[in-house]
């Protein structure tokens, strides 16, 4: 999101605003609710930067205060136990997990701080939007917006223009589409 060549303002709307609606991740999730637990099969397709796919089996409690989820990746022979995202502040979450790789014969733990505000914390928004089509069929869209807000400046008696406007920039993309099929007993 840089300005045009030589620090000049871009001259067309196409250079100021770019929206990409081709997702780089496609997920198909099958879920079955059984006696207080949700068992899921996730088929995950990634088309950028390289074409690859993953399958995951997921087990997690259905209760509102669930604290964990168990994930098994049969193609990589990995198992993980992840905590729920723990809110630290309004926009900051912590998640911890322990896992084992049967291929590498290694056990380790990870932690991750996440936020819906990415980048420098001001110029990027990342979010997920859910759409319930009918009972048991949901779509979730992961999207991102990088932006620079318009800026208005001016001066009197300094040799600078009385009024100056930087029109700002927006780059938005639809990064992920998830189709979630849930069967309840």
TrEMBL record:
Residues 12-183 form the DUF7781 domain. It comes from the Eukaryota. InterPro entries: DUF7781. PANTHER family: OBP3-RESPONSIVE PROTEIN 4 (ORG4). This is DUF7781 domain-containing protein. It comes from Camellia sinensis.
């Amino acid at each position: 999101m840089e300005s045009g060549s030589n620090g000049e303002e871009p001259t067309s709307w196409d250079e100021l605003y770019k929206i990409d609606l081709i997702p780089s991740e496609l997920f198909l999730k099958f879920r079955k609710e059984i006696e207080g637990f949700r068992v899921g099969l996730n088929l995950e397709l990634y088309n950028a930067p390289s074409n690859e796919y993953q399958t995951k089996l997921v087990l997690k409690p259905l209760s509102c205060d669930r604290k964990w989820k168990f994930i098994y990746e049969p193609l990589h022979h990995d198992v993980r136990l992840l905590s729920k995202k723990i809110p630290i502040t309004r926009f900051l979450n912590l998640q911890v997990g322990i896992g084992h790789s049967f291929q590498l014969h290694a056990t380790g733990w990870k932690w991750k701080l996440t936020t819906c505000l990415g980048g420098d914390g001001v110029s990027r928004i990342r979010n997920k939007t859910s759409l319930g089509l009918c009972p048991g069929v949901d779509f979730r869209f992961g999207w991102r917006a990088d932006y620079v807000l318009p800026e208005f400046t001016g001066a009197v008696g300094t040799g600078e223009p009385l009024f100056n406007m930087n029109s700002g920039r927006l780059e938005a993309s639809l990064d992920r589409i998830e189709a979630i099929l849930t069967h309840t007993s």
